[in-house]
Amino acid sequence: MRVEHVVVMGVSGTGKSTVGQALADLLGRPFLEGDALHPEANVAKMSAGVPLGDDDRWPWLRAVRDAMSGHAADGTSTVVACSALRRPYRDVLREADGRVRFVLLDVAPGALRDRIVHRSGHWMPPSLLESQLATLEPLQADEDGTILLVTGPPDEVIADALAALA
Predict the structure, then answer these.
(1) Which of 25, 42, 117, 138 lies deepest, with the highest CB count within 10 Å?
(2) What does the alpha-carbon distance between residue 67 and residue 73 come to, in Å, rounded to a whole number?
(3) Which residues pair with residue 6 across a beta bridge?
(4) Cα-based distances in Å from 101 to 17, 38, 55, 77, 112
């Protein structure tokens, strides 16, 4: 079996972790939480409401890529939650060993704001949503992936993701 990594991507509040963990469970794969691989300096910056720049993101993206490749070396496919907001960021992730596919979760900005304001236990402040939306470059036709419009509950999104990946 060929190794495949599914990267569940999008801006903060789209449900990357929820959908990613569920997909990993259903597919019998390890789940990699991209946020857990951020250096402390990145977390501190974002917690203070300061958007990350490319110089902050490159080492983090390489760490996510390397974690994927580490699993691939053992013949293991993964599901990853990672914002992967711009094509150059996705290019870094595509360097991982194995096939890398993307599932972009697209949520209306008003719904995103509501989700972020009402969630607890996450260091990403609502003030950074606008910078993430401005940075987001949707998947292009030549990228291996799909865009899912998120309008329903997580179970529907997960079913849509599984259908798109089939």
Answers:
(1) 42
(2) 10
(3) 79, 101
(4) 16, 21, 24, 11, 24
Q: Does domain 4-165 have CATH number 3.40.50.300?
A: yes
d(C-alpha 150, C-alpha 110), whole Å? 12
- Contact 35/61 with Cβ under 8 angstroms? no
Q: Which two tokens stand for residue 143?
A: 């990228």
User: Token pair for residue 152?
Assistant: 């329903």
Please state the length of the chain: 166
- According to the model, what pLDDT value does residue 123 have? 54
pLDDT computed for residue 114 by the predictor? 76
Structural domain boundaries in the chain:
4-165
Compute the distance between CA of residue 154 and CA of residue 18 in angstroms, rounded to an integer. 8
Residue 102: what are its φ and ψ, rounded to 5°? -120, 140
pTM listed for this prediction: 0.90
